[in-house]
Amino acid sequence: MESGKKQSMDSAPAGPPADQTNFGLLRLYFQNSFFKYFESIKGKKTIYFDDGLLKVLSFVFGQMPQSANIDETLPLNAKDQLQPINEKVIFVVRPELDVIRKVIFQQKGWMTGKEFYILYVPRRTIECDEELEKEKIFSEERVSQIAMDLIPLEEDLLSLELADNFSHYMLGDDDNYKVYVQTSINRLETVFGQIKFKFAKGDDASQILSRINQSAIPIDSSNQTNESEIDAMIMLDRNIDMVTPFCVNQTYEGLIDEIFRIQSCSITVDTSIIKPDAQKDPKAPPMEPVKILTLTNDDKIFKDVRDKHFNTLESTFSQKVQQIQNIVKEKDAPQSIDELEAYITKLRNMDIAKGKDILTHHINLAFYINTQMKNIDYQHCYGLEQKIILGEDLKQILQTLENKMVKQYSKDKILRLMCLLSVTQSGLKADILESLRKFYLMNFGYLEIITLMNLQDAKLLRVKDKKLDWAKLKKTFKLINEETRIQDPVDISYVYNGYSPLSIKLIEFIFNQGGFAKTDDKLKLLPGQVIYPPNENEFFGAKIQTISNSDQQRKKRVLIYFIGGITYGEIAAIRFLNKLFKDRKFIIATTQIINGETCIEMMRGKISNNLNLQSLLKK
Amino acid sequence: MDEGGDYTGNSLQTTYIQRFYEKLSEVFSQWIPLEDVYYRNIEFGELEFGKVSEMAKWPDLGFFNITIAKNGGPIAFMLQDKVLMIGGLKDIKSVAAKLKVNNEKLKWACFEFTQDEDLLLITTDGYAYLIDPKTGEFKDKPVLLGAEFAMRPIQDAKLFENILVFRNSINQFYWIPNITQSMVASKFDYIAKLQDAQIHDYIIIPKGTKGASALELLIPDPEEGFHVIKENKGQSMYLRDLSQMSDDRIPFGKIQFMALNSKKDLLALYTEAETKGRIIVMKSNYQKEFNRFDTRLLEANALQWCGNDAPVLTFIDKIAIVGPQQFEILDFRTKTAGIKVMNEIDGLRIVSSEKTYFLERVQPVLLKSFKIASISPSAKLLNAIKSVDLNIPRADEIIRELGKDLITGIEDLLEAATMEHQNITVLKHLLRTASFAKTFVDPTEYDSNKDYKLALQIIEQLNLKHASMVYEEWCQTMVKYSTLQDNELEIRLQEKFDQLKIQIAEEQGINLTSLSFQLGINAANLPTLAMSGGRTGSMMPSGMTQTQQLAHQLGNNIKLNIDFTKLAKIADSRGKKRLANFLIQKEKSIVKKIPFLLEAQQYEEALNFAMEGGDPNIINKVFSEILKKFEGNNKQVIQKAASIPDGLRHLRNFARARKDENLLSDIAIMTSSLRQNQNQVQDMSGVIVSIKNAYENENIENRLDQVSQAMKKIGEIYKDDFYGKTLEEMLVTQSKQRDLFRTFKDQRLVDASLSDTIALLIAGGKEKEKDVKELKNTMKIPEKYYFMMAIRGFAKANNWDDLYYFINHKKPPVTYSFLAELCIEYGKVPMAVEAIKKISDYDEKIPMLIDITQWREAIEESFNGKRMEFLDEIRQKGPAFVEDFIREEMVKRGTK
User: How many other CB atoms are found less than 10 A from the CB of residue B46?
Assistant: First the structure.
């Protein structure tokens, strides 16, 4: 017990462990860039934040310092024109025409005499300039940009946090993300040294990699002492595995994301969920209706449980409760003055009160998630997911889907299952597809036609073809483990209750077989081109010789870059790979973090229905 | 600096200018005339011997064995079988301590650099070692060339590029064709006559050189002439003279040394070393003797070529450049004697204990500019500026006289500048003169600060960039003023770019020798040299294709630091469209390139480049410019986009972001015609934008209009039946909803789903039954779906009797599980149980009962269906009393 206590409850060690790359630098850099920019505009200012940036910026900023002298922040919307109180007004926006139109809309409502600035993140574009020019509100000297790209969400997780990237990737309707990915890699190489081995699987990944290779300065062999902090990078297209995003992963973090949508490491929760008892106490002061919870490794409890299977949480949490109780109990044991003093110091260091608070939050969150999962429709849908993965009786699957449709149970969940079905079956027979879509529209309204069209364009819902042989993939990559262990997992299949995510299984295969060349036959089963350096053996062949020596020789760091998004399940699975390959350290980069439902939401896009009821009455 | 008084200032300046011109004239006076050509010996620096503990500050190099890697690579020194130091000018280091071989008595027979600039050492007993000059340590393990050398030790070995030739104590010669591939040696035919001969020299003529069909080894005979041993057996020759091959019958005499020039087409012999010091130059295929000259320079230490131009004899403290009838002596009076020379492609590298030099032939363009009394335009221009500097009013006259030659003069000056890398004063002066001359061509060109700035920059960054600046200056002038045809000028410019690229590559330390070897280019024909680079051009027209090849192989990653866009703009402004196009293609920066192309109205090229770069920001800019240009003529724009792979997708994205319905449907029309040919996939983005636009309308009639247009579009362009029909249904539903809203004023009906509409109507009672039926018929809703929606309407309207009717129905139009689920949703558990019980599939039925905690029924059904495995689940999920139920059920069944 004593040792266990030490392990999990001790205060944080100073600085990042030696085996980590200090990606925190990036965040500091971006933070500084913003603050410097704000400071450069003298006087009181109002800032409009583009909602697509709001979450990620609050993550990057931490807290807004007083010196920035921001006196007012306003949301950037297209509905109400707001009146800024200060003379200087800054728009912090993404370079998208829709967003710029909002800027123009807001600007038009102002009283005169405002100074107007635009800050683009991550870059300024010609088309946005032109849009402003059309309205005659463009002023060269008041336009700036901050090239914010990969945000270090964790020491091993970097994300571009591009809103809607999944749909842009699937529909190919906006290639800006390719430029952002490329520049982000350039930045990584500038800061952390040139990555010697670069791999790509998938058409986008290959295109980006060849552009990087084209513009790269040849590696100067005499300069090899200048060691890079990242040894290799594997870029993967999302579409090598379109099955996993539509599955529900069973990790704690994954389920929190499913239910609360984690955005840049934080969730917004009804206070009643995390403090259910507080409301019952009439004497308690009134609470704020919602609370923002930050979910990072700084929260030691979360760090311990984030990647664990949800069903194993109960025991972990009860252990933690026990630990706290033990410490509290110590207080009552007879003690000398010295012991008491030591005890108080210990208490202070551990911040028991805070720890207990956080633990309570997590227990209540888990309880809430559990209740959600007990919902009969939820269970039916989850059961359906497993049946689809295993390829069971189609008729029953369709019947359940229809039942859920007419009950109008979560259109996102239904579309997610339809996509999963279509992807695993390599499309659906024309008549089945037609009747499913038809009934879907009857129940969820004709405006959903846009979502269906987008899903069709993205080939997520399509007529049957022979592009993908799911049964063969399952067999080749050994994706199903019927005896998966959720308590002390031995493979990545625990993440999805027995299904190993294909994308990560592929990485595992590549490392097991010693390189891309040796995995060629398997890579061919998945869509998209492959690029790997001819000397990949130098990377895959190099093993750390002895374990005793491992102190001096650091692990080989591998950056896995997902283009088109990654799920929390896949993140947990990659983290598990660190246990399977002890001489490697895997780092994850992605364009954004997704789950099945956010994918569907992105494919739906934004539609504004401006119908005026009065117009219905006019003949 | 003190301004001084008027009287001193003026005279000071004069003296300064005079001194400058005196110094400048030294440039020419230092050139070494040899008959009609000139050579110059450029000093490069000194080797810091003092830094190496084993050596004196100025060692007597006569005692050392010295080897030099080609193309300005490292140099190594050996004293009494001990390798002492390796390095280049800046980083020479002692390696003596590092190289410890077990056998202390080791004697080295070979001491040569390979093409990869590793030092190859071979012991007399046949072990070959490679030393990495960067670390000074042995690479890999030694390779044994053959066991026989223990008995008959290797005497010496020479490396000719990658061909290693060596001989043993009885003068049996061996060769290894490519040491980078294998170290297996073959024997040459043995010439018994040579068994005990003293051999001073031998050389290799590689296969493929000037007609040599096989590798040839040339060995001087101890008495006279030389032996040619070919790689193929039994074809050896003994040549006393050229009578076997031509009419020349005059014997060579006793040969001391032989040497091949860089191109390997000329062979020089040094014969009768004790009496005549004769130099014979002949074709390397022995077909013709060119020259024979008795220099009376006796007992030389070595014979080498200076590039391709002249044989050079080396003595202990001097060298002699030998021309057809004359020779010129270069004295190196150093504190200690000993000189080592190395043939390079266009010159000769010379190492003495004090300095290193590069001896080269003066390029014609430099010669005609600086030669005294030269009347070439460039020389005249130099005179003109001199007269300006010295306040003699002759400049105008000179320029006037030059007339059209003015441009040639400027070109030559700049061309000379690209060749002058060593003497910054000369370089500056050339540029200044060119810039001065240009003001006469085009007065707007005059920028009094320009040459000054340029010179300053050059001095500040004496590195890669100055080369680029000089080249750019040259290119600019050529583009502006050259009278050459565009296509010829293109070739000249390309040559310069290639030269510059190679030069920069060398300065970046890319090993060109090994690169050219991989390419299969004969290294001797490499157009440039490492230490100074760029000394090429008119002398070697045959080498150009190899320059191109090499430049090509170097790829796109070497930045030339030349502003191609600027050059292209100049070309364009002078009406040289083709040249502008050629130049802009070289521009790597898309940000520079695109605006140029757009300005020049080269839309397709702009689009091409933008697509190549892949940045939507730039692609969209190009599209918007093209659209402006064609004033909304979408077809033209679409055709341009369609001509480039992926172009239509980018155009579609452009239109989509701007919600441009017209452009989108035009693209769709285009795509659908392409689709039939090219298997292109149609996407629905055009329709999607239309529908989105329709919903943004405040007015329902406008919306319906737009939807019906979208529907038409789908029928005509997309030919998608499903969506065509669906949009039709959408129209029907929305019109119906509009009408219903007008009648009932029920807001819930607006934009409700069909299912909700039906449910609402059903809830509205009998009066709305007609509307439901009408909807069902016009929409052709399938029976099953209709009933599912309608029954849901009953549930919503709390009409459980009607719903119960279906549960009791023997063959209801919907499944029992659907009915059960509805009942569960609305909390009608007993009714749900009734429905569930009617489900035939136990796998579906029992879990449903478990879900709604109907334990007794679940147990009963488990027994009914003999599905005992469910009992475990029931025990697990249910309360403790389920055991009682199970027991009861068992008893019940047991009694039966």
Answer: 15
